[in-house]
Amino acid sequence: MAKVEMTVNGKSVSGEVEGRTLLVEFIRGKLELTGTHVGCDTSQCGACLVHVNGQAVKSCTMFAAEAEGAEVTTIEGITGKDGSLTAVQQAFQDYHGLQCGFCTPGMVMSATALLKDNPKPSEAEIREYLKGNICRCTGYHNIVKAIMAASGQDVGAIAAE
Amino acid sequence: MPKDHGIGASSKRREDVRFLTGTGNYTDDINARGQAYVHFLRSDVAHGRITNIDTTAASEMPGVVRIFTGADFEGIGSIPCGWQVTDRFGEVMHEPPHPVLAQGKVRHVGDPIAAIVADTLAEARDAAEAIELDIEELPAVVNMKDALKDDAPKVHDDLPGNLCYDWGFVEENREAVDKAIKEAAHVTTLELVNNRLIANPMEPRVALGEYNRANDESTLYTTSQNPHVIRLLMGAFVLGIPEHKLRVVAPDVGGGFGTKIFHYAEEAFCTFAARQLARPVKWTSTRSEAFMSDAHGRDHVTKIELALDKDNNFVALRTDTLANMGAYLSTFAPSVPTWLHGTLMAGNYKTPLIYVNVKAVFTNTVPVDAYRGAGRPEATYQLERVVDKAARELGVDPIALRRQNFITEFPYQTPVAVEYDTGDYPATMDKLEEIADIAGFAARRKESEAKGRLRGLGVNCYIEACGIAPSNLVGQLGARAGLYESATVRVNATGSISVMTGSHSHGQGHETAFPQVVAEMLGIPEDQIDIVHGDTARVPMGMGTYGSRSLAVGGSAMVRATEKIINKAKKIASHLMEASEADIELKDGQFTVAGTDKSVAWGDVTLAAYVPHNYPLEDIEPGLEETAFYDPSNFTYPSGAYACEVELDPETGRVTIERFSAADDFGNIINPMIVSGQVHGGIAQGVGQALMEGCVYDENGQLLSASYMDYAMPRADDVPFYSVDHSCVTPCTHNPLGVKGCGEAGAIGSPPAVINAVVDAMQSGGHDVTHIDMPASPSRVWAAMNG
Predict the structure, then answer these.
(1) Quick one: which of B33, B401, B615, B785 is 20 to 30 A from B730 by CA?
(2) Which Pfam families match (chain B) (predicted)?
(3) How far is CA B311 from CA B308, B314, B346, B391, in A?
């Protein structure tokens, strides 16, 4: 066991971890931040996506010890202190970009990272970027639409609700 | 103007806020004080005899609480099957035992052998590696045709030939169908595979068992679509715990698609172990475990023959199917290839004679059960493929051939037992032709061809049967459960409402849509109404969510309970306004006396019910809470027409979906936004089945597609924006909302559209290919064109 220290959602945190403890296990288990989900064990699904030092990272691909000294942001960290939603979160609700909600934190964190790098992505760019996040409910239609809307693009012409 | 509240409004989903902010409450988010963790040691061979299992050394490992094996479950019940099919000779199906932990033999890769309970999950996993286990490997059987041979390896020692049942439907039609096919002007024959799939809800299964010695109560938190059903199956058949001592909670559940209907060994284990150890025991499936322990879906091999007369009218249909059951019977497995499949074989067409034969087969694979659509996609796929093939053989337009044979008069009694109440198949086809711009296809094909691509158009229809019922009928057909739903509407003193429903929401948005109905009926704001579901301690009874039944059955129960509330509230209002009860009207949350300006508000009445100072105590009880059980008189029959356009790269065989359009008739619609979302998701799963997904075993029963590295899930760039429409409405005639159900339609209607389009594309390139099996992967498509 070794001690690890990092900043999560603006707060300094520390804990004893085994070498094999994954960052996602530390976030969910030690910090009890259960908004970050685990949907697979091969780094494919993206439900565990968080931001580490501003980069989108699947927190199942990183040991907790590797995040020593890092700035980590989880889904809980992007929501306003008063519970207010970011533009991405709000667009997901407005355009029905989620159903069961399990992939949603990863999707929102992924979309947030995308819009930081590419403020007005095309449909094709969004679909390409989201390849690392699997959703089984929505067929991606309303997720892509929500991200386009969150980036200020007119989605009125896109078919259906 | 679209409505902004009540029935028909696209109300935004209230559940979204917690999911978007990471404050949902999924089963794995729940931890009990002092909980231990269980890791299951699972079989790595498909078939074998356990010759030695020694847990002595493993039990001494750090943190180990106890290791359980099959021996600990002798005398404990078998995981039950909820549906008993009677075969065409009048014999009941073969129903082998399904132990919680393997007893002597393992029958599929993933079959649980031992359960290691430890203080931490890592310690449990470490200890599993120290278990001494010897398995004498036996020959495995994976292929269904091989399994039916007399000398095939026996999955269950007392069952040579591995046949679970041989079902015929309608058996009395058999000879007439044979004769009609023999004498027909044209017969189109097609052999096809409905590929084995894995449902893959994004949340893996989780079970957390607790035991309270003080009151002898067990609690199971589990990822279930129907907690009350789990309480019944596990309590009564496996562990012998009466309902009043067993609470089952299914909190936020991250998708189900059928595979979370069933009662699983891990649920029984955690409940059992928590009682044995007087300590909470938690299991969280990894995705790899999910692939080899969640019930799989589909896996049918079918030969279908469609007979037509000289004028291209359908005269008879015969279909023979082998249906894979896997190694054990999962909860509703026997019903899927029979009553959920055979009864749908008429589709949208007036074929007068139909015979369906299904042989259900045991193999050394994971059990197979309902997956989104369950039997109905299998029926739709074979029917719509053979109709398309017939059109091509006869040189007629596939849409015209369908239109010619449409059922147009309702109610319509099919030759396969069910009676369709309503539908308008020409109308949905008209709508499809409009939204899919079928007329513009030829020009789009030219554009594709100019780029060196082939372009194909596939069209099909579907009919679905939702809200399986009524209970007395399904009981005759072998169901070991009722298929009603219950609802309790609890009006509080201040007028707010809690609706306890037995339906379970795991993505369908019931917390938003159900209040829209009650708000419409009472004329009060939606935010005054909350839905309570997923907990046997809070909801009196329920049969859960599957088969697109929530609104049609659960919603109807809620309507009936709300009607009782209105009746009682009117009695109270008539007393408060000293008027005749017959003159009381309820509108916009106000009770008025017809023809007068007298009124009392909803809140005045509800307060009077709980503070009955001025109240007709001699006539009615205080309080305002009503329960209703609703048992439908028939299924509902949503229908629609779907179109898919693909581009095919002849160099690589890669197929891309360029356009996908769906025109559905779901009856009345409560929340159009949610309905569209359900169709989108269903289409993506159908496209996944058609082009990408396939669960693959090798000949030894090793599961080759056991992770997302090998099982191709549709990603965002595999699908386009879809065009969906549900403006064709023929309301259901036998439920109070006139609703039909929309959850499975997309997955039912889309696979044949995709494959019809792929075949069309190949034929447009001059390739003499009449069929390709799913998934139409690039290698298969390339081989079909260049074989």
Answers:
(1) B401
(2) Ald_Xan_dh_C, MoCoBD_1, MoCoBD_2
(3) 8, 9, 19, 12
Contact B22 A33 (CB under 8 A): yes
Taking a C-beta distance cutoff of 8 angstroms, is the pair B368, B295 a contact?
yes
Residues A42 and A97 in one domain: no
Contact state of B255 with A99 under an 8 Å Cβ cutoff: yes
CB contact under 8 A, A45 and B708: yes
Cβ of B681 within 8 Å of Cβ of A127? The answer is: no
How many angstroms separate the CA atoms of B307 and B302, rounded?
16
**Contact residues on chain A for B122, CB-CB shorter than 8 A:** 18, 20
What average pLDDT score do residues A74-93 get? 95
* Measured distance CA(B635)–CA(B483) in Å, rounded: 11
Query: What pLDDT is recorded for position A161?
Result: 44
A62 lies in a domain? Answer: yes
A69 Cα to chain B: minimum distance (Å): 24
Assigned CATH topology for domain B484-630: Aldehyde Oxidoreductase; domain 4 (3.30.365)
Contact list in A for residue B24 (CB cut-off 8 A) is 35, 101-102
Q: pLDDT above 90 covers what percent of chain B?
A: 98
Does B12 sit within 8 Å of A42, measured CB to CB?
no
Selecting from B20, B252, B722 the residue whose C-beta is nearest the C-beta of A139 gives B722
| DSSP-derived 3-state class of residue B620 | coil
Number of domains in chain A: 2
Cβ-defined contact of A161 to B509 (cutoff 8 Å): no
Shortest distance between the Cα of B435 and any Cα of chain A, in A, equals 10
| CATH architecture, domain defined by B27-87+96-138+202-255+260-293 | Alpha-Beta Complex (3.90)
Output the average pLDDT for chain B. Answer: 97
Nearest-5° Cα angle at B525, B524 to B531:
100
- The top-level CATH class assigned to B296-468+634-786 is alpha beta
State the helix-helix crossing angle for A87-94 and A104-117, rounded to 10 degrees.
Answer: 130
Structural domain for A146, as ranges: 87-150
Asked if B410 and B420 count as a contact pair (C-beta separation under 8 A), the reply is yes
- Shortest distance between the Cα of A143 and any Cα of chain B, in A, equals 9
Residues B45-58: tens digit of each pLDDT: 999 999 999 999 99
Is this prediction's ipTM beyond 0.95? yes
Same fold, B27-87+96-138+202-255+260-293 and B296-468+634-786: no
At which of A77, A106, A134 does a domain end?
A77
| Contact at CB, A35 and B508, closer than 8 angstroms | no
Among candidates A75, A145, A123, which has minimal Cα distance to B677?
A: A145
Share of chain B above pLDDT 70, in %: 100
Q: Which residues does B29 contact at the CB level (< 8 Å), separation at least 6?
A: A34
Write the pLDDT tens digit of every residue in B496-515: 999 999 999 999 999 999 99
A70 and A137 in a single domain? The answer is no
- Domain of A66: which CATH number? 3.10.20.30
Q: Measured between CB atoms, which of A93, A102, A137 is closest to B20?
A: A93
Confirm whether A17 is domain-assigned: yes
Please indicate whether, in this complex, the C-beta atoms of B708 and A94 are within 8 angstroms of each other: no
DSSP secondary structure, B181-229, as one string? HHH-SEEEEEEEEE--EE---SSPPEEEEEEETTTTEEEEEE--S-HHH
Instruction: Please say which residue of A77, A108, A131 terminates a domain.
Output: A77
Is A82 domain-assigned? no
What was the pLDDT predicted at A159?
Answer: 61
Tokens of B652: 């690589």
Tell whether A157 is covered by a domain.
Answer: no
**Which residues of chain B does A130 touch, with a Cβ-Cβ cutoff of 8 Å?**
715-717
| pLDDT(B2) > 80 | no
Q: Which residues of A touch B291 (CB under 8 A)?
A: none
Indicate the domain borders of chain B. 27-87+96-138+202-255+260-293, 296-468+634-786, 484-630
The C-alpha atoms of residue B54 and residue B56 are separated, in whole angstroms, by 6
